[in-house]
C-alpha cells in the first residue's frame, strides 16, 4: 500500500513534488511510511507541502452507507431548491466556512445558513450596482476600509488557507458598506467596492453568479406577481403617508409571510426581494 503510492508519485511527478494531499487519517502510518521509503530511495525531499483534509459528518454522525446517511454532490443539486449555479456557490460557501483541515458537519440547516450568508452579499451587490449618484457623503471613508480588509483577507489566506477568517474579513466589509450606504456612496466608489468583492471572490470561487440571477424561491406554493407586489407597496406607502403605521406594518407582515421582503431606502423609495 505505502510503496504503491511512492512508486506512482515518483513515476508521474518526479522524486520531489510540491503538494501531497490526503485525509487526516492517512498521516500515520501511510504518509509517514511514504516519506521514509521515498527519502531513503532517492536521498531527496519527497513532498514540499502536505495538505490533510478533515472529514465530513452528517448531522454529527460519520457519513457511511451503513448508517444510511451517504449522499453524492449530484443528490445535493437535485434536492436543493435553486438553479445549479446558485447551488454550486451555496455548497462551496458552506465548505469554505470551515478550515479545510477541520471536520465539517453537513446538514440541510447548514446549507440554508450558507444560502442566507451568500444572499446577504448579493443583496449588497445589487444595492451597490444600482447607485447612480456622482457624490456620496461616505466616499472618503471607503478607501481605508478596503485597505484594512485587504490586509485581513491576505493574512487569513497566508495562514494555511484559513478561509473562515477570509470570509469574516469579507463580512466585515459587507457590514461596513451597508452602514456607509445609509450615509451615501457615489457610483464610482460603489463600483470600486464591487471590484474588490469580485477580486476576492475569484480567489475563493465565490460571487460568480450575475447579481440579478441570484434570487430564487425556497418554498413551494403560489407566489405574488410583481404587479401585485407593487400594488401592495403603493398601498403601504399611502398608509405611511397617512401615518397609519399599524396598517403599513400589516402589509409588510403579509408580504413577508409570502416570502417578500421589503427594504425602505433613505431616499423614500421601497425595494422588494423574494
Structural commentary:
This protein has 274 residues and is mainly alpha-helical. The chain folds into three domains: 1-53, no CATH class; 57-213, Isoleucyl-tRNA Synthetase, Domain 1, CATH 1.10.730; 226-273. The protein contains ten helices and seven strands. The chain has helices spanning 2-13, 27-42, 73-79, 84-96, 108-129, 139-158, 163-183, 187-204, 226-241, 245-257, and strands at residues 17-23, 47-53, 56-58, 61-62, 104-106, 261-264, 270-273. The protein has a three-stranded mixed beta sheet. A hairpin with a 5-residue loop joins strand 6 (261-264) and strand 7 (270-273). Helix 4 (84-96) packs across helix 5 (108-129), helix 6 runs parallel beside helix 8 (187-204) and helix 9 packs antiparallel against helix 10.
Q: Please estimate the helix content.
A: 55-70%
Number of helices: 10
Give the radius of gyration: 25 Å
CATH superfamily descriptor of the largest domain: Isoleucyl-tRNA Synthetase, Domain 1
Gap between N and C termini: 53 Å
Which fold name corresponds to the CATH topology of the largest domain?
A: Isoleucyl-tRNA Synthetase, Domain 1
Mean pLDDT across all amino acids? 90
Largest sheet: 3 strands, mixed
